[in-house]
């Protein structure tokens, strides 16, 4: 299969994990921001997590440098534009970008300005390239419950204007869902869709609670339902869609290697899976590469790919008109 020309859908991609090294150096030079290296290869080495990461927490350390240059409206707009531009060049037809607005307030921007800037960059790209996008607002599990309420409240004015969903992300501790029941409940009342990072580390119970306590429609990663019978059952029975990211999952040691990744086994057992990059720069990957990994390791057929593509379309938080358009590509 020629994965370069096949249409693709990406539902799980972090904005701050997908900055071009060239962009970071360019902005840092212009704004006199102190970064570890002003050489492209040097900063790339600082941004990319090795396959030999010890844990998710070590992987997450790579996000500190990108956030240094994501503190102005102009930079956020540029970075969002470039991400969709890069994706369009891979024949990604629809993409959901997620980011945590509260990470970008260090120079005085308010949350509404931050969200609008990212949406503006996405719209710029949609106007120029054959790609559509929507935005997911992430709440940091390492921050207070009040901070999650803030994101939900300030993001609601953008529902129907590019913002589609709420997310919980960052370091994963057992039972985190119990702390965020009320802000996620409010988000659902406002009309946000819900996708939750869970089961990325060895805690399958977190997936179960993300579904039962928070009403998650999709799960970011979900690898460890393989170790939790009840989580596996509810994901399969309720057709909860897993946003799986093979390279990232090897890096964070959710799995030891690509061959051990459960994505293909889940697919064959009737669990709905999707293919995603997670973080294009931190994981040094793109959608073509992630698809090639599945082909190399599991010899997926065109019918497998087509089913995963349709899973992605149906699981997307796009409107019905966009979904019908996306189906026609394949």
From TrEMBL:
GO terms for biological process: adenosine catabolic process; hypoxanthine salvage; inosine biosynthetic process; nucleotide metabolic process; purine ribonucleoside monophosphate biosynthetic process. Binds 1 zinc ion per subunit. Residues 7-327 form the Adenosine deaminase domain. This is Adenosine deaminase. The record marks 221 as: Important for catalytic activity. Pfam families: A_deaminase. Keywords: Hydrolase, Metal-binding, Nucleotide metabolism, Zinc. It comes from Lederbergia lenta.
